[in-house]
Structures are given as structure tokens and as C-alpha cells.
Amino acid sequence: MRILVSIFIMFFISCEKKNNELSFKGHEYISMAEIKKKSPPLRLLDSLKKKYMDTVDREDIPVKILSAKLLKNEYSNFRDIHLVFKNISKKDVQAVKIQWFSVNSLEEPSNLRYFFVRGESCGLSVKLLKRSMVSKVTFEEFSSDANRVIKARAYEVIFSDGTVWSLKNQEYLDAYLIKSY
Length: 181
Description:
This protein is of the alpha+beta class. The chain is 18% helix and 39% strand. It has helices at residues 2-14, 32-38, 44-56; strands at residues 15-18, 21-24, 63-72, 79-87, 93-103, 120-125, 134-143, 148-159, 164-166, 179-180. The longest helix is centred in the first third of the chain and has 13 residues, at 2-14. The chain is elongated and about 85 Å long. The model has no long low-confidence stretch (mean pLDDT 76).
């Protein structure tokens, strides 16, 4: 017991206070204020916004997102996403995979259904969508901090004749897709 007490006392004696920061002899620590001054701001939000902005108004996308808004969940404080979309192709659509990006009040990527993928999520609608038809779908997103949807887009469309249209390099989303009928 005496050994523990003496080690504890030696530890506190070896600590000294400099500039309102705790430091140990032989070691210097940088304050958080200095780190924030030296670190460039994260540009994750900018790169994700650009990814969505680059493809959202493409002419070849067969399903156009008309509206994307967040709704308060009826039974909790979480928010859901409500999407309105239209088939603008010349074929009937059997299914649509849709992805969206949202931010919180601080303009940071919001937490969504998948807590390890911030700001970005996806859903699947399997309603038959005839030519020029408009459809609505609501996905339970379980977001506690989403404030607004930056953009939403269709990333894969399956037509009634069996053909598929898709954006390149979006397959990673399928691993997280939860079907909504």
C-alpha cells in the first residue's frame, strides 16, 4: 500500500503546470487552440456535395427527384426522408435505388441510419412506375441531427423489360440497402 501511495505522490510531483496546460517533465503538449489554428478545415462536406452536384442534373438519368425533405418521425425524435420522384424515361420502371446526402445544423454530414457513413444513405423503391408517372416514398432514416437534404438522386434503375441503368462506382451502397416496400 505504501508503494502505491509513494508512486502516486511521485507522479503528482513530476507534473507541473505551464500556461494553464498540464505537462510532464521532458514532454511538451500542444494546446487544442494551437491545433485548431494549424489544422486546415476538413473538406469532406465539399467533396461529397460536389459528388452529388456533378450527377444530379444529368440528362441520362431516367428518374428525376422532384422533392426531398426531412419529416419528424411520428413515434420518436428521429427524422425520416420523404422523396417525390418521376419517371422521365420512355420505359416503365420496376425498381429505383435512390441515394441522398444530408447535413446537420452545423453544415456537417448528419448521422443517418448507418452511423459509420455520415451524411450519405440510400433506399429502394419497388413500385411500378409507368412513363411520366410520379411516385412518393418515405424512408425511416433514424437521424437525430439531420437538418436538410443537400441532394438526392437515383443511382440505379431497373426497367420492366429487364434492362438496368446505373451510375458508375455506386455499388458500395448496395451493402447497406434496406428494402422498403
